[in-house]
Q: What sequence folds into this?
Protein backbone atom coordinates (compact mmCIF):
# COMPACT_ATOMS: atom_id res chain seq x y z
CA UNK A 1 0.00 0.00 0.00
CA UNK A 2 1.43 3.39 -1.03
CA UNK A 3 1.70 6.09 1.64
CA UNK A 4 -0.57 9.10 1.24
CA UNK A 5 1.25 12.38 0.70
CA UNK A 6 0.08 15.06 3.11
CA UNK A 7 -1.92 17.81 1.42
CA UNK A 8 -2.30 21.38 2.72
CA UNK A 9 -4.66 21.16 5.69
CA UNK A 10 -4.92 21.88 9.38
CA UNK A 11 -4.67 18.96 11.78
CA UNK A 12 -4.86 19.51 15.56
CA UNK A 13 -4.43 23.23 14.87
CA UNK A 14 -1.11 22.57 13.06
CA UNK A 15 -0.59 23.61 9.44
CA UNK A 16 0.33 20.61 7.29
CA UNK A 17 2.71 21.78 4.58
CA UNK A 18 2.45 20.18 1.15
CA UNK A 19 6.20 19.63 1.04
CA UNK A 20 6.32 18.51 4.67
CA UNK A 21 7.18 14.83 4.57
CA UNK A 22 9.90 14.28 7.12
CA UNK A 23 12.80 12.16 5.82
CA UNK A 24 14.05 9.40 8.11
CA UNK A 25 17.34 9.96 9.96
CA UNK A 26 20.42 8.43 8.39
CA UNK A 27 22.21 5.57 10.12
CA UNK A 28 21.03 3.03 12.71
CA UNK A 29 20.65 3.75 16.44
CA UNK A 30 21.82 1.10 18.87
CA UNK A 31 18.93 -0.81 20.43
CA UNK A 32 16.37 0.86 18.15
CA UNK A 33 14.21 -1.27 15.83
CA UNK A 34 15.26 -0.55 12.22
CA UNK A 35 13.09 2.05 10.52
CA UNK A 36 11.90 3.61 13.80
CA UNK A 37 14.99 5.73 14.40
CA UNK A 38 13.05 8.97 13.94
CA UNK A 39 11.02 8.25 17.07
CA UNK A 40 14.16 8.70 19.19
CA UNK A 41 14.04 12.44 18.40
CA UNK A 42 10.43 13.28 19.25
CA UNK A 43 8.25 13.71 22.32
CA UNK A 44 4.89 13.39 20.56
CA UNK A 45 3.21 12.19 17.39
CA UNK A 46 -0.16 12.95 15.84
CA UNK A 47 -2.27 10.08 14.49
CA UNK A 48 -4.75 11.31 11.90
CA UNK A 49 -7.36 8.95 10.45
CA UNK A 50 -8.08 9.37 6.76
CA UNK A 51 -11.72 10.01 5.80
CA UNK A 52 -12.91 7.23 3.51
CA UNK A 53 -15.36 8.66 0.98
CA UNK A 54 -16.90 5.27 0.09
CA UNK A 55 -17.62 4.50 3.74
CA UNK A 56 -19.01 7.98 4.42
CA UNK A 57 -21.41 7.69 1.46
CA UNK A 58 -22.46 4.03 1.65
CA UNK A 59 -21.84 3.06 5.28
CA UNK A 60 -19.88 0.01 4.09
CA UNK A 61 -16.92 -0.64 6.39
CA UNK A 62 -13.63 0.00 4.62
CA UNK A 63 -10.07 -0.62 5.75
CA UNK A 64 -8.77 2.11 8.07
CA UNK A 65 -5.84 4.33 7.12
CA UNK A 66 -3.87 6.72 9.31
CA UNK A 67 -1.20 9.33 8.76
CA UNK A 68 1.35 9.64 11.56
CA UNK A 69 2.72 13.17 11.83
CA UNK A 70 5.29 15.00 13.92
CA UNK A 71 4.38 18.11 15.93
CA UNK A 72 5.13 20.31 12.89
CA UNK A 73 2.50 18.47 10.86
CA UNK A 74 5.01 16.59 8.70
CA UNK A 75 4.11 13.03 7.79
CA UNK A 76 6.66 10.60 9.23
CA UNK A 77 4.79 7.31 8.81
CA UNK A 78 1.63 5.92 7.27
CA UNK A 79 -0.50 3.06 8.62
CA UNK A 80 -2.83 1.02 6.43
CA UNK A 81 -5.16 -1.76 7.56
CA UNK A 82 -5.09 -5.13 5.83
CA UNK A 83 -8.20 -7.13 6.71
CA UNK A 84 -10.83 -9.36 5.20
CA UNK A 85 -13.86 -7.66 3.65
CA UNK A 86 -16.02 -10.47 5.04
CA UNK A 87 -14.71 -9.89 8.58
CA UNK A 88 -15.12 -6.10 8.29
CA UNK A 89 -18.80 -6.59 7.40
CA UNK A 90 -19.66 -9.52 9.68
CA UNK A 91 -17.29 -9.07 12.63
CA UNK A 92 -16.86 -5.26 12.48
CA UNK A 93 -14.61 -4.11 15.34
CA UNK A 94 -13.81 -7.68 16.44
CA UNK A 95 -12.19 -8.53 13.11
CA UNK A 96 -8.64 -9.67 12.68
CA UNK A 97 -6.27 -7.22 11.03
CA UNK A 98 -2.72 -6.23 10.23
CA UNK A 99 -1.76 -2.56 10.28
CA UNK A 100 1.32 -2.09 8.14
CA UNK A 101 3.18 1.03 9.25
CA UNK A 102 5.39 2.35 6.45
CA UNK A 103 7.85 5.20 6.11
CA UNK A 104 7.56 7.87 3.42
CA UNK A 105 9.40 5.61 0.99
CA UNK A 106 6.72 2.94 1.36
CA UNK A 107 8.98 0.61 3.39
CA UNK A 108 7.35 -1.30 6.26
CA UNK A 109 8.85 -0.31 9.63
CA UNK A 110 6.32 -1.86 12.02
CA UNK A 111 3.22 -4.05 12.07
CA UNK A 112 0.27 -4.25 14.45
CA UNK A 113 -1.21 -7.71 14.07
CA UNK A 114 -4.35 -9.25 15.57
CA UNK A 115 -5.80 -12.62 14.59
CA UNK A 116 -9.54 -13.05 14.58
CA UNK A 117 -10.67 -15.08 17.60
CA UNK A 118 -14.32 -16.01 17.94
CA UNK A 119 -16.00 -14.71 21.11
CA UNK A 120 -13.01 -12.57 22.12
CA UNK A 121 -13.20 -8.87 22.93
CA UNK A 122 -16.98 -8.60 23.10
CA UNK A 123 -18.02 -5.66 25.31
CA UNK A 124 -20.66 -7.75 27.06
CA UNK A 125 -18.01 -10.02 28.62
CA UNK A 126 -15.18 -7.59 29.30
CA UNK A 127 -15.23 -8.59 32.98
CA UNK A 128 -13.92 -12.04 31.99
CA UNK A 129 -10.14 -12.55 31.68
CA UNK A 130 -10.58 -15.31 29.10
CA UNK A 131 -12.15 -12.77 26.73
CA UNK A 132 -9.09 -10.50 26.62
CA UNK A 133 -8.22 -9.80 22.98
CA UNK A 134 -4.49 -9.54 22.16
CA UNK A 135 -2.70 -7.69 19.38
CA UNK A 136 1.03 -7.95 18.80
CA UNK A 137 3.40 -5.16 17.76
CA UNK A 138 6.28 -6.29 15.52
CA UNK A 139 9.24 -4.55 13.93
CA UNK A 140 9.92 -4.76 10.18
CA UNK A 141 11.69 -8.11 10.60
CA UNK A 142 8.82 -9.73 12.50
CA UNK A 143 10.50 -9.42 15.90
CA UNK A 144 7.79 -8.96 18.56
CA UNK A 145 8.20 -5.68 20.46
CA UNK A 146 5.22 -6.22 22.74
CA UNK A 147 1.49 -6.72 22.94
CA UNK A 148 -1.71 -4.76 23.56
CA UNK A 149 -4.85 -6.26 25.06
CA UNK A 150 -8.09 -5.39 26.71
CA UNK A 151 -8.31 -5.99 30.45
CA UNK A 152 -11.35 -6.97 32.53
CA UNK A 153 -13.35 -3.81 33.28
CA UNK A 154 -16.70 -2.78 34.63
CA UNK A 155 -17.49 0.88 33.89
CA UNK A 156 -14.70 2.00 31.58
CA UNK A 157 -12.30 0.21 29.22
CA UNK A 158 -8.72 -0.48 30.31
CA UNK A 159 -5.98 -1.68 27.99
CA UNK A 160 -2.70 -3.31 28.99
CA UNK A 161 0.63 -2.78 27.27
CA UNK A 162 2.97 -5.78 27.53
CA UNK A 163 6.65 -6.09 26.74
CA UNK A 164 8.02 -8.84 24.46
CA UNK A 165 7.94 -11.29 27.41
CA UNK A 166 4.20 -10.67 27.93
CA UNK A 167 4.80 -8.80 31.19
CA UNK A 168 2.40 -5.89 31.77
CA UNK A 169 4.38 -2.65 31.80
CA UNK A 170 1.62 -0.05 31.48
CA UNK A 171 -2.13 0.48 31.39
CA UNK A 172 -4.20 2.85 29.25
CA UNK A 173 -7.11 4.09 31.35
CA UNK A 174 -9.95 5.59 29.36
CA UNK A 175 -11.75 7.57 32.06
CA UNK A 176 -14.96 7.10 33.97
CA UNK A 177 -17.47 7.00 31.12
CA UNK A 178 -17.30 4.39 28.33
CA UNK A 179 -19.66 6.39 26.08
CA UNK A 180 -17.95 9.76 26.53
CA UNK A 181 -16.97 9.91 22.86
CA UNK A 182 -20.63 9.96 21.84
CA UNK A 183 -21.58 13.01 23.87
CA UNK A 184 -18.37 14.90 24.67
CA UNK A 185 -17.41 17.97 22.61
CA UNK A 186 -13.93 18.40 24.06
CA UNK A 187 -10.53 16.77 23.76
CA UNK A 188 -10.23 13.62 25.86
CA UNK A 189 -7.01 12.76 27.71
CA UNK A 190 -6.23 9.14 28.55
CA UNK A 191 -3.29 8.58 30.90
CA UNK A 192 -0.86 5.75 30.22
CA UNK A 193 0.25 4.58 33.66
CA UNK A 194 3.48 2.71 34.46
CA UNK A 195 2.23 -0.19 36.57
CA UNK A 196 5.55 -0.57 38.40
CA UNK A 197 5.14 2.71 40.27
CA UNK A 198 1.75 4.16 39.20
CA UNK A 199 3.45 7.14 37.56
CA UNK A 200 2.19 8.58 34.30
CA UNK A 201 4.29 7.28 31.43
CA UNK A 202 2.53 9.06 28.58
CA UNK A 203 -0.76 10.59 27.48
CA UNK A 204 -3.01 9.60 24.60
CA UNK A 205 -5.39 12.37 23.60
CA UNK A 206 -8.43 12.03 21.36
CA UNK A 207 -9.13 15.31 19.61
CA UNK A 208 -12.69 16.41 19.00
CA UNK A 209 -13.03 17.48 15.36
CA UNK A 210 -16.13 19.63 15.54
CA UNK A 211 -19.85 19.10 14.98
CA UNK A 212 -19.91 18.64 11.20
CA UNK A 213 -17.04 16.18 10.97
CA UNK A 214 -18.30 14.23 13.98
CA UNK A 215 -21.79 13.94 12.46
CA UNK A 216 -20.81 12.86 8.96
CA UNK A 217 -17.60 10.86 9.38
CA UNK A 218 -16.14 8.43 11.88
CA UNK A 219 -12.54 9.54 11.35
CA UNK A 220 -10.76 9.86 14.70
CA UNK A 221 -7.67 11.86 15.52
CA UNK A 222 -5.22 11.30 18.36
CA UNK A 223 -1.99 12.63 19.77
CA UNK A 224 0.49 10.58 21.77
CA UNK A 225 2.78 12.50 24.13
CA UNK A 226 5.76 10.84 25.82
CA UNK A 227 9.21 11.78 27.17
CA UNK A 228 11.81 12.28 24.45
CA UNK A 229 14.17 9.84 26.19
CA UNK A 230 11.56 7.07 26.45
CA UNK A 231 12.75 3.80 24.91
CA UNK A 232 11.85 3.70 21.21
CA UNK A 233 10.26 0.26 21.62
CA UNK A 234 7.85 1.71 24.18
CA UNK A 235 7.08 4.62 21.87
CA UNK A 236 6.26 2.11 19.12
CA UNK A 237 3.97 0.21 21.51
CA UNK A 238 2.16 3.43 22.40
CA UNK A 239 1.61 4.30 18.74
CA UNK A 240 0.45 0.77 17.96
CA UNK A 241 -1.97 0.87 20.87
CA UNK A 242 -3.81 3.80 19.26
CA UNK A 243 -5.03 1.59 16.40
CA UNK A 244 -6.26 -1.06 18.84
CA UNK A 245 -8.00 1.41 21.18
CA UNK A 246 -9.61 3.20 18.25
CA UNK A 247 -10.90 -0.08 16.86
CA UNK A 248 -12.19 -1.52 20.14
CA UNK A 249 -13.65 1.61 21.71
CA UNK A 250 -14.29 4.49 19.34
CA UNK A 251 -15.27 2.58 16.21
CA UNK A 252 -17.60 0.51 18.36
CA UNK A 253 -19.16 3.68 19.77
CA UNK A 254 -19.49 5.13 16.28
CA UNK A 255 -21.34 1.99 15.23
CA UNK A 256 -23.69 2.34 18.21
CA UNK A 257 -24.38 6.06 17.70
A:
Amino acid sequence: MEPVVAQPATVYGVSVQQQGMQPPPSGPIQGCPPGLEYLAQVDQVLVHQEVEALEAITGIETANRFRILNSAGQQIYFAGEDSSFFERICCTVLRGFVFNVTDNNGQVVMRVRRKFECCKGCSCCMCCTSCNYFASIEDKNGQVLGHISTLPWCCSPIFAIYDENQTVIAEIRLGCCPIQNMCCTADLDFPVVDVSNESQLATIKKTWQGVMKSLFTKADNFSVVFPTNLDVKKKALLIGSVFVVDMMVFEQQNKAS
Summary: The mean pLDDT is 80.
